[in-house]
Amino acid sequence: MEIMNEFDLIEKYFRPLAGPEALGLKDDAAILNVPKGFQLAVTSDTLGAGTHFLGNEKPEHIARKSLRVNLSDLAAMGAKPYAYQLCIAFPEKPKEAWIKKFSAALAADQKKFGIFCSGGDTTVTKGPLTISITAFGLVRENKAVKRSGAKPGDVLVITGPVGDALIGLRILQGKIKTKSVSCVAAYHNPVPRTGVSDIIRAHARAAIDISDGLIADVGHICETSNCAAHIDLQKIKFSKDAAGFIKKGTVKSADLLTGGDDYELALAVPPKNLPGLLKKLSEKGLKPQIIGKFAKGKPAVTVFNKGRKIRLGKGGWTHF
Amino acid sequence: MEIMNEFDLIEKYFRPLAGPEALGLKDDAAILNVPKGFQLAVTSDTLGAGTHFLGNEKPEHIARKSLRVNLSDLAAMGAKPYAYQLCIAFPEKPKEAWIKKFSAALAADQKKFGIFCSGGDTTVTKGPLTISITAFGLVRENKAVKRSGAKPGDVLVITGPVGDALIGLRILQGKIKTKSVSCVAAYHNPVPRTGVSDIIRAHARAAIDISDGLIADVGHICETSNCAAHIDLQKIKFSKDAAGFIKKGTVKSADLLTGGDDYELALAVPPKNLPGLLKKLSEKGLKPQIIGKFAKGKPAVTVFNKGRKIRLGKGGWTHF
Cα separation of B103 and A76, whole Å? Predict the structure, then answer.
């Protein structure tokens, strides 16, 4: 069933997503309130079918991923989710059934993460489905956790296992044959770490989400903090499924550390804050891992395996 | 010349657009400050090649239009431009020369309108160039000018002539042959009325930008304010060029009132505020027009010609 036009579509499916600040999506702009003593964290991500997702995912998967990749960025700043702008370029006159599922998934995520839609824009182009979300978070004045705060001696912690999303993608692409579904779920439904933003802010000096791959993103902390990072490959605990695939030779550990699409956070933590951080993250149900440390030196990430430096070559790790 | 990758592109051309709040575009999110006593107006517009612009425009035209359509929405709320997020889906690996001109035009507009880039995202899809901008404005607490404030008896004022952009589009499409360029400029380079936001806020009870066409947008004020609007066709002053085209029969006045892509504002003004409004807008170089009034009645826009109701039929006005 074809829907009537843009205004009908907004009326029926997007208006119910709007908070009061959105003025019913009936005005030229939304009016957001930033409470005294807070700042507004702002982040945008554009996801295109065929580039950032396969395109044949269910509408609810696309909805969740589009919103959550942004929430993950807010989490990395230690900000609490507040609102978001939703811009969609549809590839053709969209099907009502698709919009219905898409908006229902957004509604469920709004409840889950305490966020509302403040506005946006919908249009139709001759290209693939393209979704740009700009998300807003609230963070106490001057308390945002930046990438640039790491210092030599800080411990490198990640909030959970890496690599499952890459395995999930390969399963969906038919490159890995398996009956396991947990990695596919990790790819489809990333879980942004917004629930622990207070803990991150209280304990970490720098944070980043590892959606571009662990090595690349820890590298970003190194560049902005002007220090080195040492990762100990032996300390990285992969998920049970991922460990199984590594053991069978189905995937390489190097791929999992560079693959991206994971939405855990990498943190630089002063040693004195470490016990408190690990305790509180564990109490929230996370499985944080100490995987290395920051050190003096040129901004670069070095990986060690049993004390020996190794490096990424084509197809996996090679020794220096 | 092909540019290297997304990071190089950001580094060379987009980082210089960033304000300090953008943290050098090097973090997961920007951190915006909303001063005490202010609220943040937020608006988004997505423009796609082949849908919202022809696609063969110069990069500077596309840059200006993408930003200014958003600034126009801020102006309609009585908000002062503050910052914007820039999301671009490129249709192919973008040419450096294109990006250079595009970013230079944004830099010039940032200076002109007192705004900076707070972040965004760039990606490449298989579709046409698609630009989503989310713009932020500051407005004094509870002073935003909404669509819903019009009352019967208010005067309907527009801040300048309508219809030039539609004529410009038809010239570019080859549907109108002329040597006149002013209408083409109106299409390419809309001028958002951000410079008069203080005046709008002080004098108008409701405002909207007329980018969807005068009749449709005044209709939006009627719907949200629950009143009628009467427009007097005789009172509408078209630009010299537009009047000439109407006289020659090249365009119909009805088309100009419904065409869209104009970025003047339509205002609902209490009669006592009218002299002050007209004087102050004129001092700012604008040519405001009183074109009708708001009245009791069902939310609808009625156009009168020499005292007789007329209505839009296929191809122009028809009498009831």
Answer: 28
**Which burial class, exposed, middle or buried, applies to A317 when counting CB atoms under 10 A from its CB (0-12, 13-18, 19+)?**
middle
Q: Please give the structure tokens belonging to residue B172.
A: 């570019």
**Are the C-beta atoms of A260 and A166 separated by less than 8 Å?**
yes
- Closest by CA position to B48, among listed B66, B61, B60, B64: B66
List CB contacts of B302: < 8 A, sequence separation 6 or more. Answer: B228, B229, B230, B231, B309
* A293 Cβ neighbours under 8 A, 6+ residues apart: A153, A154, A155, A156, A229, A230
Q: What's the whole-number mean pLDDT along residues A106-130?
A: 94
Q: What is the pLDDT of residues A165-183, one digit of tens each?
A: 999 999 999 999 988 789 9
Contact yes or no for A39 and B33 at CB 8 A:
yes
Q: Can you tell me the mean pLDDT for A281-302?
A: 97
Q: Residue B1 CB: number of other CB atoms within 10 A?
A: 5
B41 interaction partners in chain A (CB closer than 8 Å): 29-32
Q: Identify the H or E element spanning A69.
A: helix A59-76
* Any B CB within 8 A of A66 CB: no
Residues shown for chain B: 320
Q: What is the DSSP-derived secondary structure letter of residue A79? A: P
**What is the mean pLDDT of the segment spanning A238-265?**
93
In angstroms, rounded to a whole number, what is the distance separating the alpha carbons of residues A258 and B189? 44
The span from the CA of A166 to the CA of A35, in Å, is: 39
- Which among A167, A198, A201 is positioned nearest to A184, based on CA atoms? A167
A299 CB within 8 Å of a chain B CB: no
CB A67, CB B53: distance < 8 Å: no
Q: Which of B214, B217, B209 is nearest to B193 (CA)?
A: B209
CA–CA gap between residue B144 and residue B133 (Å, rounded):
21
Q: How far is CA A268 from CA A194, A264, B147, B254, in A?
A: 17, 14, 48, 63
Closest residue in B to A37 (Cα–Cα)? B36
Using DSSP's 3-state secondary structure scheme, residue A164 falls into helix
CB B80 within 8 A of CB B71: no
pTM of the model: 0.92
DSSP 3-state percent helix, strand, coil across chain B (nearest 5): 40, 30, 30
CA nearest to B27 within chain A: A147
Q: Tokens representing B211?
A: 């980018």
Helix (H) or strand (E) holding A106: helix A96-113
- At residue B260, the pLDDT reads 86
Residue A74: closest C-alpha in chain B: B29
- Say yes or no for a CB contact (<8 Å) between B128 and A126: yes
Contact between A136 and A32 (Cβ < 8 Å): yes
E-only strand ranges, chain A: 30-32, 38-48, 80-90, 116-124, 130-140, 155-158, 206-209, 228-232, 265-269, 289-295, 301-305, 308-313, 316-319
* Whether the complex's predicted ipTM surpasses the cut of 0.95: no
B19 or B153, higher pLDDT:
B153
